[in-house]
TrEMBL record:
Sorted UniProt keywords: DNA-binding, Transcription, Transcription regulation
Residue ranges annotated for the HTH gntR-type domain, each copy included: 10-78
Keyword DNA-binding in annotation: yes
Matches recorded under Pfam families: GntR, UTRA
Gene Ontology biological process terms, A to Z: negative regulation of DNA-templated transcription
Species in which this protein is naturally found: Falsiroseomonas stagni DSM 19981
GO molecular function: DNA binding; DNA-binding transcription factor activity
Protein name in UniProt: DNA-binding transcriptional regulator, GntR family
Keyword Transcription: yes
Length: 249
């Protein structure tokens, strides 16, 4: 790796991370090889070891390198992993269908909503619902999970969830098509939490890892609950939630 100092605008660790990422993209070092030690990187780029460590953390978050105990930092990819940004402009975007993602259904079961689940969903305690469990991933060859998903559909509308479009089309849309009941109200709650064991396993992280829970409820006329969803995301640079609002003026 050639000597290059981190002199770009912005934090030195960010500039160093860009320099190292560019070198990795050029094959210096190649995938499977190790980066120089922290001490060598600090010396060759004229920065502190703390700056080097933060730059390496950025490279790890991008999926370019991984630490190997007793060996150092190994290059595992030439290009950063793609980031999934949920940009909210419509109800379809809120369901995650506005971006290049896909949902793999892993389980379907029926349950009677208990008080704890009813409190989470904001409605439906004592009501029978169909629960669909799945994993949302980026579309294409990258299998890395983005979210552990649970969808709850009241029993009268469960037939909509049996249609082959599930996973590609929001269920509330299928309900609207079949029963002519439009969504007139949507409510969303976002909370930070420590991921429970089952969700952590599905997302490939350790139980207790920091995460984000997004609960959405879709209502028809007269506050009729059509669908509720619970999405769990692990803390990761791969997922970003963005919302854009325009002034009415």
């Amino acid at each position: 790796m050639t000597r290059r100092s981190a002199t770009r605008l912005g934090p030195r660790y960010a500039a160093l991370a860009e320099t190292l990422a560019a070198a990795i993209a050029a094959g210096q070092p190649a995938v499977g090889e190790n980066l120089p030690t922290e001490a060598k990187l600090a010396d060759s780029h004229g920065v502190s070891r703390a700056t080097v460590r933060e730059a390496l953390r950025r490279l790890r978050d991008q999926g370019l390198v991984e630490p190997v105990h007793g060996v150092g930092t190994r290059v595992i990819a030439r290009r950063p992993r793609p980031t999934y940004e949920m940009a909210v402009r419509s109800l379809a975007d809120l369901m995650g269908y506005g971006g290049p993602t896909q949902l793999a259904v892993t389980k379907r079961d029926r349950l009677v909503v208990d008080p704890a689940l009813g409190a989470l969903l904001g409605d439906g305690a004592g009501v029978e619902m169909l629960r669909i469990t799945g994993i949302r991933t980026a579309a294409g060859a990258d299998p890395t999970p983005l979210a552990a998903v649970e969808m709850f559909i009241p029993a009268p509308f469960a037939a909509a969830a049996e249609r082959p479009e599930v996973g590609r089309t929001p269920i509330y849309r299928l309900i609207e098509r079949q029963w002519r009941i439009p969504v007139v109200d949507m409510r969303q709650e976002i909370a930070a939490l420590s991921l429970p064991r089952a969700a952590a396993h599905a997302l490939g992280v350790r139980a207790g890892t920091p995460g984000l829970r997004i609960v959405r409820r879709f209502y028809g006329p007269q506050a009729l609950l059509l669908e509720a969803t619970v999405n769990l995301h692990a803390a990761s640079p791969r997922f970003a939630y963005a919302i854009r609002l325009s002034s009415p003026e």
